[in-house]
Amino acid sequence: MSTENPHINLLIPLYNEEIVFDSLVERLDSLMKRSPIAISAILVDDGSSDHTSKKMKELAEKDARFTSVILSRNFGHQYALSAGMSYVDATEAVLILDGDLQDPPELLDDMYKLFKEGYDVVYAVRQKRKEGLLKKMAYKYFYRLLDKMSYIKIPLDSGDFSLVSRRVIDQLNLMREESRFLRGMRSWVGFNQIGINYERNEREQGDSKYTWGKLLKLALNGIFNFSELPIRFITGLGLLTISVSMIYFFSTLIRRFVFNVVPEGFTALLFVFILFGGVQLVSIGIIGEYIIRIFFQVKKRPLFIVKSVIKSKSELSLLE
Ligand code: UDP
Ligand code: MG
Predict the structure, then answer these.
(1) Has residue 224 been placed in a domain?
(2) How far is the CA of 186 from the centre of ligand 2 (A)?
(3) Which is the closest atom of ligand 1 to the Cα of 80?
(4) In a domain, 190, yes or no
(5) Is the dihedral of CA 103, 108, 109, 110 positive or negative?
(6) Which residues line the pocket of ligand 1, CB cutoff 6 A?
């Protein structure tokens, strides 16, 4: 298949995926061979410490359908995808998928049909997840919470696995926001978007590279980038406590001067003190979540650093 004018790019971030790498390439190769659409792949190595980048280099050197982008360190999944997006040369669209074969690349056929019907974003919606119960629950409730909170509609149970038109990719490349929640940014761009159901497989080999810490960071980015409700919540809580304290104040006055009841209750006082100490710290923490995002944004650091790009036999070494 000619890669002179590729119509579709596959964009795949890889972090320590040497075990699954060969079966991934096999699946991509058969998809490329049998597909009537011209396909080439952009693989991004997100600072792997195993042999992933070595395998990626070897592949890109001998096979012109593959471009390998090596990052200078582990920046995280969202940044690896962002890095890959800046190397997109597809004329039509980009299929974004995970490297562990949890997202079946073959879904491209059905997604492409919808794309051709005029949808700029065809996102895959997980019908079933074959993952640990705790992770499944965390995902489920997070998406429902985000749906209630966010100021744009972010589809439930859809991750980054999607076919995205070139013009949407161009827009995402223009959005230089530091704290990145791509599935939200993708919704924000607009145009016609549609979901397609699929069953998420188990990871083919190896372990999840999304630690609970990374997952929490992603979830917080979703909420604090797409909702102002946490701040509004603080204001609401403040107004509520002022109202309650006023009612309490006047009722105490009435009890003291009308019914001659002397106020007592040292324990209650201490409890309220500690409670509001906590409420205030949490409130500061919530404001802090926004400030920390402003802090990193104003630095205007690059979102990722590319160490090298290997394309066919020509290595464009950027920093070495
Ligand atoms: N990944 C990455 N950088 C990271 C963590 C993960 O590029 O810091 C890649 C990983 O190699 C995989 C995809 O992102 O291709 C999804 O990660 P994983 O399968 O570990 O996440 P899960 O499916 O368990 O949520
Ligand atoms: Mg996975």
Answers:
(1) no
(2) 20
(3) 7
(4) yes
(5) positive
(6) 13-15, 17, 46, 74, 76-77, 80, 98-100, 102, 203, 208-210
Q: Which two tokens stand for residue 196?
A: 């397609």
Q: Are residues 47 and 69 in the same domain?
A: yes
Q: How far is the CA of 118 from the centre of ligand 2 (A)?
A: 29
Question: How many domains are contained in the chain?
Answer: 2
Could you give the C-alpha distances from 272 to 175, 264, 266, 269, 275, in angstroms and in order?
45, 14, 10, 5, 5
Same domain as 288, residue 164: no
Ligand located closest to 78 CA: 1
Q: What are phi and psi of 85, to 5 degrees?
A: -60, -30
Tens digit of pLDDT for each residue in 239-286?
998 888 888 888 888 988 898 887 777 777 888 888 888 888 999 999
158 & 193 share domain: yes
Nearest CA to ligand 1 atom 16: 98
Is 3 contained in some domain? Answer: no
Does 124 share its domain with 252?
A: no
36 and 166 housed in the same domain: yes
SS3 content of the chain, % helix, strand, coil (to 5): 50, 20, 30
**Domain span at residue 259?**
229-299
Residue 109 shares a structural domain with residue 38: yes
Q: What angle do CA 104, 108, 112 make, to 5 degrees?
A: 160
2 within a domain of the structure (yes/no): no
Q: Residue 69 C-alpha to ligand 1 middle, in angstroms?
A: 16
Q: Which amino acid is at 233?
A: F
Q: 117-159 pLDDT, tens per residue? A: 999 999 999 887 777 888 888 888 898 999 999 998 888 888 9
For 19-65, where are the E strands, in sequence order?
A: 39-45
